[in-house]
UniProtKB/TrEMBL annotation:
Keyword Repeat belongs to the record: no
Swiss-Prot/TrEMBL catalytic activity: 3-hydroxy-2-methylpropanoate + NAD(+) = 2-methyl-3-oxopropanoate + NADH + H(+)
EC number per UniProt: 1.1.1.31
Family annotation (PROSITE patterns): 3_HYDROXYISOBUT_DH
Superkingdom as given in the UniProt entry: Bacteria
Ranges for domain 3-hydroxyisobutyrate dehydrogenase-like NAD-binding: 156-281
Phylogenetic placement of the source organism: Bacteria, Pseudomonadati, Pseudomonadota, Alphaproteobacteria, Rhodobacterales
Annotated GO MF terms: 3-hydroxyisobutyrate dehydrogenase activity; NAD binding; NADP binding
Pathway named in the protein's UniProt entry: Amino-acid degradation; L-valine degradation
The keyword Nucleotide-binding belongs to this UniProt entry's keyword annotation: no
Originating species: Primorskyibacter sedentarius
Name of this chain's protein: 3-hydroxyisobutyrate dehydrogenase
GO biological process: one example: L-valine catabolic process
Length: 290
């Protein structure tokens, strides 16, 4: 397929390179002049999108996505697919999809989980909103870039799935970290804590697959000085999108709101920036009862 790829950052560059390696013709563009292996670089977003069967965007936020959509939608051929893989607010995803559909394009919002490692290894999970026909056309590309693509319903539902998942993740990571810090103060050995909780009703992905305690459970960023992994500021972004959506939809999400406040403080006022989001454990370790 002829693929346009806009946004060749930490995630976009390896995703585009994997598509090129699989034999697709990939033309890319990034405002910062970034490149990717096997990808031909165009001199504008519109030029990268011209004549493409599918244009993929992997951008920082909804405002930038809307701006790029204004540039590339007029350049795309009717019947082509606009596939946004960025994590953005549900409203921007739906607005861009509407604009694309009005121009005769298929539109998909397909945020990912799996991080930079998943992007490089082609093992991302895609959560996809949009029409069935577009999903079918994009399926071979999802197969190259990831291991799983779940069609979640109409436009915006991919973003909805992503922020709901990450709201659960932020809340359970905080709960797991504060419980470890409490266990320390009660004299409970961390290995014993892991052995019990990981096989009891407190288990979760945060405990079982990404244990925030160094030397305990499977290998995780905790074993690497809390180098990300999934950076605390990315978790902060996703929790902010979840609260923005909750407000717009009039949903009551008190734990999501508390998680947002804690990660905001951790990243902006404490030493969380640049650390993995599981570094909440050393944060709680240092603190007393609030
Ligand atoms: P990044 O900042 O490394 O990459 C974004 C790229 O977009 C940059 O290279 C930037 O120059 C480019 N860009 C910005 N404005 C542009 C424009 N107008 N035209 C063309 N290019 C433009 O970010 P990333 O880590 O690659 O993340 C991309 C998206 O994926 C974000 O929405 C992020 O939330 C999401 N995401 C990231 C991760 C992760 O672990 N990094 C995991 C899941 C989802």
């Amino acid at each position: 397929m002829k693929v346009g790829f806009i946004g060749l950052g930490n995630m976009g560059a390896p995703m585009a390179a994997n598509l090129a390696k699989a034999g697709h013709t990939v033309t890319g563009f990034d405002v910062a002049g970034a490149t990717a292996e096997g990808v031909q670089i165009a001199d504008s977003a519109a030029a990268a999108a011209t004549g493409a069967d599918i244009v993929i965007t992997m951008l920082p936020n909804g405002a930038i996505l809307r701006d790029v959509a204004d540039q590339i939608i007029p350049a795309m051929s009717p019947g082509a697919v606009f596939l946004d893989c960025s994590t953005v607010d549900v409203d921007s995803a739906r607005a861009v999809a509407e604009q694309a559909q009005a121009a005769g394009l298929s539109a998909l919002d397909a945020p990912v989980s799996g991080g930079v490692g998943g992007a490089a290894g082609g093992t991302l999970t895609f959560m996809v909103g949009g029409d069935e026909a577009g999903f079918a056309k994009a399926a071979p590309l999802f197969e190259v870039m990831g291991q799983k693509a779940v069609h979640c319903g109409p436009s915006g539902n991919g973003q909805a799935a992503k922020i709901c998942n990450n709201m659960i993740l932020g809340v359970t990571m905080i709960a797991t970290c504060e419980a470890f810090a409490l266990a320390d103060k009660l004299g409970l050995d961390r290995q014993a804590m892991f052995d019990v909780v990981s096989t009891s009703s407190g288990y979760s992905w945060s405990m079982n697959a990404y244990c925030p305690a160094p030397g305990v459970g499977p290998k995780s960023p905790a074993d690497n000085g809390y180098q990300p992994g999934f950076a605390a500021e990315l978790m902060l972004k996703d929790l902010g999108l979840a609260q923005q959506a909750a407000e717009a939809a009039d949903a009551d999400t008190p734990m999501g709101a508390r998680a947002l406040a804690l990660y905001k403080r951790f990243v902006e006022d404490e030493d969380g920036r640049g650390k993995d989001f599981s570094a909440m454990l050393p944060r709680f370790e240092k603190r007393g009862h609030d």
